[in-house]
Amino acid sequence: MTTSRRRAVLTMASLAWKAERVKSSFIILLSLADSVTVWTAGQGLRSLVDSTLHGKGTEILVAAAVAAVSFAIGANASRVRTNLRDEVCERVGLVVDQEVLALLCELRTVEHLERPEYLDRVSQVRRRGYLLAESCWAMFDTCTYVARFLASTALLFSIHPVLVVVGLLGVPPVLLNRLGQRRVRNVLSETAGLARAEEGLLWTAVRPKSAKEVRIAGAGPFCATRAQQIWDEVTREQARSRARNSVFTLSGWIVFMLGYCGGLAFVAVGHGTSGEIVLLIAVASQLRGQIESTVSGTTRLLEGLHTLDAYLWLRSYAVTHTVASRSAPPAQLTDGIEFDEVSFSYQTGGRQVLRKVSLSIPAGTVVSVVGRHGSGKSTLVNLLCRFYEPTAGRIRVDGVPLSSVSPVDWQHRISGVFQDYGHYQMSVRDVVGIGSLEDAADENRVRGALAQAGAMGFVERLPQGLETLVGKYTDADVDPSEGQWQKLAMARACMAREPLLFVLDEPTASLDARSEHDLFQSQMSYARKLGNALGTITVIVTHRFSSAALADLVLVMDSGSLVETGNHRSLMSLGGIYADLYQKQWRAYNFAEMAD
């Protein structure tokens, strides 16, 4: 076992001890008692048979009592130990599941959530906290089984030294099982990606958004068939590896049974007493159970170690990709934000989605970013928010490289509404309040944010107002419309304290024309207020040129490059991409109004 694995197992043991000290102590004591009773039960059984044959009454009673008590302790200790271990593992498993979730969330970027090798490890660990917690007890149980095995081997030695060979022949099944389990672990790792693909297809068929398209297209059977094909491939590979493991284990058992039959014949032909023959039969049957338990324990241990490897990988990734605490962002912006020859690729050596972008955004400016789909608009925002780091070039905030600013502190000074805003299944108060956890209990702040977002009207019509549970998965059965969810997201953004960057990524995409106009005017008013107070820069990503025209500065992106900058008037005079797209959209809207 590697040092990192050993450390992780000890960590799990420490968690178990802290969570349930009394139960953990009982588990250890019962395991020790279980090991000792193997020896005492064997000696009592041999003495009972020999005493009975020689008619020694007192010795018969003592031997019977020792054997009975030992068997009773052995039988019940194992059962009680298993129940206690399950209780401890369940409790520790919840703690481990929470830690795994923390590992996923503590990284300040989001690029790890797009890496297949990262997602493979997540799929191996997700909801397996119990298995991780059990890994320390599986190792302890394996040690207990080995101790019982050694006690049985000592009993064989007490009959005749040659019979130790019978005990040693119990080792091959364990070693061969371990060899087979190594292949099983490799196959589990190799098929993790396919298992994720199968799960993704099933989710596509049941998630409300994608399920509509699936039903209209009649693609449900296709998705189910494809998912079944992938699952068949996964299970076929895993079943094949487990079949090989069974063959290895069976080979070991055959070797053991041949040795056992030879030992029984050896004692029967005159190398032991009647009590020793009975003891050999009893020990051999115990050996079989002990070996099976050892094989089972080793299997559970190795399965736990497989999950533990993925857990350790995630912990290591979190450590190596966590940025050390650096300088804090400024209290307010005075100069602004500058891009200097910034380029970005989502994959190392892959296609550049941003190419040598250079620009300067003065403090307090409202900026619109426009362009065709795939032009790099959202990527620009992602870099500003430090969800990703530039591949080349540098971003400066008030002259200070953004890479030298603590990402945690910087993101705490960002607010906004993104395309994929959350549909949090909780009360309205909490849905809005999590935008600033420090102020979540302040009802005036929450109501002010809702009013700023134009959401107070529909919230007041809800059955319990701010306390109403919203979302289709809550008991209240109050599911806001998409436009109302977007207003709640906007209110959540308005809760932030003193943001230096205010991001609106398609902020009115789910609203009707009247609501869009009202909300956008409110957003612009809020942006101007932030700009005057803190020098906050507001970045609006939009396809609606009527909204873009109200910005102080318009950035026009095309194929990953910044091709035009200026305000609406100057860009229209330029007669370039912006003017062309604006006129096309204006004609389309006018045509639609004439048709109505």
Overview of this protein structure:
The chain is α/β, with parallel strands linked by helices and 596 residues long. The chain has 3 domains: 3-320, ABC transporter transmembrane region fold (Up-down Bundle), CATH 1.20.1560.10; 327-413 and 498-596, Rossmann fold (3-Layer(aba) Sandwich); 421-492, Rossmann fold. The protein is built from 21 helices and 10 strands. The chain has helices at residues 3-19, 21-54, 57-106, 116-125, 129-159, 164-168, 171-190, 192-206, 208-217, 220-271, 274-320, 377-384, 407-412, 428-433, 443-452, 456-460, 482-494, 513-534, 545-548, 568-574, 577-595; strands at 336-345, 352-362, 366-371, 392-397, 400-401, 414-417, 501-505, 537-541, 553-558, 561-566. The strands form 2 sheets. Strands 6-7-8-3-9-10 form a 6-stranded mixed beta sheet, with helices on both faces. Strands 2-1-4-5 form a 4-stranded antiparallel beta sheet, with helices on one face. Strand 9 (553-558) and strand 10 form a beta hairpin. Helix 1 packs across helix 11 and helix 4 packs across helix 8. It is elongated, with a radius of gyration of 34 Å. The N and C termini lie far apart (74 Å). The mean pLDDT is 80.
Count of individual beta strands: 10
CATH homology-level superfamily of the largest domain: ABC transporter type 1, transmembrane domain
| Straight-line distance between termini | 74 Å
- Compute the gyration radius: what is it? 34 Å
